[in-house]
Amino acid sequence: DAGVTQSPTHLIKTRGQHVTLRCSPISGHKSVSWYQQVLGQGPQFIFQYYEKEERGRGNFPDRFSARQFPNYSSELNVNALLLGDSALYLCASSFLHYEQYFGPGTRLTVT
Amino acid sequence: GENVEQHPSTLSVQEGDSAVIKCTYSDSASNYFPWYKQELGKRPQLIIDIRSNVGEKKDQRIAVTLNKTAKHFSLHITETQPEDSAVYFCAALNQAGTALIFGKGTTLSVSS
């Protein structure tokens, strides 16, 4: 049984560019959440999607957006990248909102 | 806003000793409290969780206790082994049930 998958694994972008990160949840899970983890800190909530609808949004600027597709996979988009956006972006999958299982993450470096 | 405080930030123990990590949360409506283990360069791994309708849960060498009145919960690891060395995060589900609010993590080092 496959776990949560994310792509790409690593990404290097320049300030001002746009990035799209992708996530496929565990089979049967309908909820996908996105978190940002800065080195040395705990994950910080960005979005939660359930049944293709946004259920929650963290304290992130409008440059961050996301969506969920009919197959429950999800994309996180970040526009106008800043140096401070450099982080590990984690996707978590859950059947409802308990027991969130994380993917391996996408390491984003903004130069 | 919602907040989770975790301490200590670092913990060093000898193999075979017990380790305890403590967290407090601010949102009295929180009803779900998971613990994650994150090894260097890897994903956070859910190791145990507890819901607000129970006070304690155990799974082999790890246990979690919850005191809803005091709004704190703790992770207990007994008979520690070198492979327990990692960063441990506590979290609380927010009132809306949409987001896990994480503590800042505890770096556990188990020396043999």
Descriptive report:
- The complex is a heterodimer of chains A (111) and B (112).
- Chain A is mainly β and 111 residues long.
- Helix content of chain A is 0%, strand content 51%.
- Chain A is built from no helices and 11 strands.
- Chain A has strands at 5-7, 10-13, 19-24, 31-37, 44-50, 53-57, 64-68, 74-78, 87-94, 101-102, 106-110.
- In chain A, the strands form 2 sheets. In chain A, strands 2, 4, 5, 6, 9, 10 and 11 form a 7-stranded mixed β-sheet that branches. Chain A has a 4-stranded antiparallel β-sheet with strand order 1-3-8-7, with no helix packed on it.
- By secondary structure, chain B is mainly β.
- Chain B is built from no helices and 11 strands.
- Chain B has strands at 4-7, 10-14, 19-25, 32-38, 45-51, 56-59, 62-67, 72-77, 86-93, 100-102, 106-111.
- In chain B, strands 2, 4, 5, 9, 10 and 11 form a 6-stranded mixed β-sheet that branches.
- In chain B, β6 (56-59) and β7 form a beta hairpin.
- Chain B starts with a strand and ends with a strand.
- The mean pLDDT of chain B is 96.
- Classes of the chains: A mainly beta (111), B mainly beta (112).
- The A-B interface holds A 33, 35, 40-45, 48, 55-56, 58-59, 90, 92, 97-105 and B 1, 6, 32, 34, 36, 42-46, 49, 51, 89, 91, 93-94, 96-105.
Query: Radius of gyration of chain A from the CA trace?
Result: 13 Å
Q: Which structural class should the secondary elements of chain B be placed in?
A: mainly beta
Nearest-integer average pLDDT of chain B: 96
Distance, first to last CA of chain B:
41 Å
Largest sheet composition of chain B: 6 strands, mixed
Radius of gyration of chain B (Å): 13 Å
The geometry of chain B reads as: globular
Reading the helices and strands of chain B in chain order gives EEEEEEEEEEE
User: What percent of the residues of chain B sit in helical stretches (DSSP H or I)?
Assistant: under 10%
How would you concisely characterize the structure shown here?
Helix content of chain A is 0%, strand content 51%. Chain A is mostly beta strands and 111 residues long.
